Amino acid sequence: MTVKAIPLVITAIFACVASGQTTANPSLDKTFHFTYTDKPQNIQEIVNIIRSIAEVGQVNIDNAARTMTLSGTTNQLALAGWLLPQVDRLTQPPPQPSQSPATLEYQLAGTRDGGVARVFYLSHTETPQAMQEMVNAIRSILELQRAVPYNNLKALVLRGTAEQIAAAEWLINALDKPAGVQPLSSPGGNPAVIAYTFSDVQMDVRFRAPATRVFYLTHTPTPQAMQELVNSVRSLTDLQRVVPVNGPKAIALRGTADQAAMAEWLINALDRPAGTVSPASPNQTPATNQYQLSWSSDVARVFYPHTSTPEELQALVNDVRSTAHIQRATPCHAPGAVALRGTVGQVALAEKLIQERAKL
């Protein structure tokens, strides 16, 4: 009796599973026509956007007919249908009255995570490289991975939570600046800085480091110099979410409030014209700038030893690392500076070494 009943039970289970699969989330096919987009490269870029933002896996493209056929759920196809006319167009929509980039938004039904899609049309980010830097900043600083550029219209297409999209709007407005146009510098000539802080209501596990900053550099002239400054910030502050954006000559970062405060000190110390920092005393002791970390017993110090060549500065950093056993020591060639972090004893030993070099 028991043996004969088993096939019937298995058959019933398969019937239930099959029934659930056919009614739970059926896949539909729909063909979309491109109205204005005719170049295969642009069609492929739009397809990549729809795949990423609408999460449509199966796409068939017919470049000759200027069509794409998608397979997906009703919600996926609805989002794709909204996205297509936002990027399949000849020109951007007009900018908003506030001069912020024009935006268009779509609220996804029945989802909490990633429930907002938005298209930003940039005004001053001109090249594919600059567009990619903007995407990198959004992905790194906000942990928003569904961010895709469309270079033909200078557009960014994003999908995330409402909090991520709001933060992305702030960041894009901060970085989409005309060349050479920055906020006014802080008193004393320090780089201008603007801040965004996620509220307790907005906070989730991704934003336990809620302090977001954009610094506009004044005296760091080249992409290489900007990258050296970023390397120093990462090494000394333990911040990983730090990116350079070369168009507006800005550095964007996110971390704890203590990390952001230390980063501001360090950027102020390193964004200086070469040769403008005078020795601290008549005996040619190099000028210094020191910071006590709030979350560690370490101290950070910036020295301006006025070495004559980049090779001499790098050699000095190498000696500090090996003699004082400080691995967090970085050169910044534009201001001719050495930034380092270590124990009080290590920093004192590094200071003695640098002073001896300055007197040679």
Question: Under CATH, the topology of the largest domain is which?
Answer: Alpha-Beta Plaits
Distance between the termini: 100 Å
The biggest beta sheet, please?
A: 4 strands, antiparallel
Number of strand segments: 15
Backbone CA Rg: 27 Å
Structural class: alpha+beta
Class of the largest domain in CATH?
Alpha Beta
Number of domains: 4
Helix content: 25-40%
Report on this structure.
It is built from nine helices and 15 strands. The chain is of the alpha+beta class and 360 residues long. The chain has a four-stranded antiparallel beta sheet, sandwiched between helices. The protein has a four-stranded antiparallel beta sheet with strand order 8-9-11-10, with helices on both faces. The protein starts with a helix and ends with a helix.
